[in-house]
Amino acid sequence: MRNPKGVADLAARGIGVRRGDYDDPATLRTAFKGAERLMLISSPELDPSRRADQHKAAIDAARTAGVGAITYTSFLCADTQAHGVTAAHHATERTLFASGLPHTLLRHPYYSEAFLNAGLRAAVTSGELASGTGGRGINTAFRSELAEAVARVLTENCHLGRA
Question: Model-level pTM?
Fold first, then answer.
């Protein structure tokens, strides 16, 4: 959390809150100290090179802090494509492999919410949902479903070493 004041309500309830900033590796080492597992959510940075560097800093900090395992939110096809949307994720997956840390890769698709439009009620009524894919199919998932998957991956031991 770059700004712990944003979750002051959680801290007030006794939940430990630590500052961690992708651009300040020292804060990451402190934030990760004592963690058995780390959920590394991809940086919101859009520049692939900078984003990959931020992820590398987080992975290095996790290794230094003694984190037991990392779960990383990657993107579909990041294992085979190193350009466009997948560029930073491809680099991050390679960094994770090289780190030697146990890890799980969650290759998320596009979020379904991005394809739902204001005409959803009309679509339900008509039985047809128009999309911007030009008639081509696209893999999507709702963020709520992905969050449930993340919770399972973080709390079950059978996912390490898998994508």
Answer: 0.84
